[in-house]
Amino acid sequence: MTEISVRFPAEWEPQSAILIAWPHAGTDWADRLGDVEDTYIALVQAITRFQPVMICVADDDVETYADIRLRSNRVDMARVRFVTVAYDDTWLRDSGPVSLREGDGFRLLDFRFTAWGGKFEAGRDDLLVETLAAQGVFGDTPRQRIDFALEGGGIETDGHGTLLTTWRCLHERHPDAGREELTAQLSAWLHQDRVLWLDHGALEGDDTDAHIDTLARFAPGDAIVFQACDDQADSHYADLKAMADEIAALRTRNGKPYRLFPLPWAQPVLDIGEDGQPRRLAASYANFLIVNGAVLMPAYGDAADNAAAAVLAQAFPGREIVQVPCRPLIWQNGSLHCITMQLPEGLV
């Protein structure tokens, strides 16, 4: 009997759609809904230039409103599909499906979503993949429920069996598990034969406990794009420098150093916290989204935006670099990649 090959594809491989969830007054975006809607409109405008987008909506009223907003901004609605499903919030990178290629088809991994270690309510988000699958959104693709807390933003693959992740995040979710055990579990579920761990790197204003997609990302051709910090006076400098040294010490499966693309550092973005005190927001350029033919990058209205776009153009030659205004997103401690999940070509 021939064994069916299973593979975790890289984000830059061909996609059928991007999955997002529309923000509404029942989510944590309520206090600044207008600003974040503008970001979602810009995001959908950018995605639909290159491929379809599937938008989760909470009910008919949310769909009608989102449809009007998008049409009024001249979005190509032929590339927009709405699906009705209940959700607590809109961070679909972490509550959405992790897609594996299995032979000529797919398998959806449905990990337990705990809202980053129980920080927020997540009951409906944890049911998102199951609900969408039951509606037939993914056709007859099998769904594998895994009773293990893991978020899509916490893992990064090169598509050839190497996984990149952070010890801080996985250890926080599973404090009783050692690195060897976690390596074995991730390798088995995600069909990876190498797991590379980073021990350094964290951003103030990030409540994911150092998701890898805020810090370092694979790029084609044995490359890693990562968030650097060149300001020695900044509180992040020492930890991100230690992370950069770790990344420089990593080796490809052929024993060679990775090609490295450090991203520039945005000036501090501050907000007023619930205690009335200023709080730092996590403005990471590493939280970019790859789509067919382009890289959508978070822009923060900072002088470093264009420099970050230039770095991404080097790391992803042949792809258009599109800046999406994401300053409203970091108010809720995430950015562009965090609110999206790619669906591989042929899945929908």
From TrEMBL:
GO terms for molecular function: agmatine deiminase activity; protein-arginine deiminase activity. GO terms for biological process: putrescine biosynthetic process. Pfam families: PAD_porph. The keyword Metal-binding does not apply. Keywords: Hydrolase. The keyword Membrane does not apply. InterPro entries: Peptidyl-Arg-deiminase_porph (IPR007466). It comes from the Bacteria. This is Agmatine deiminase family protein.
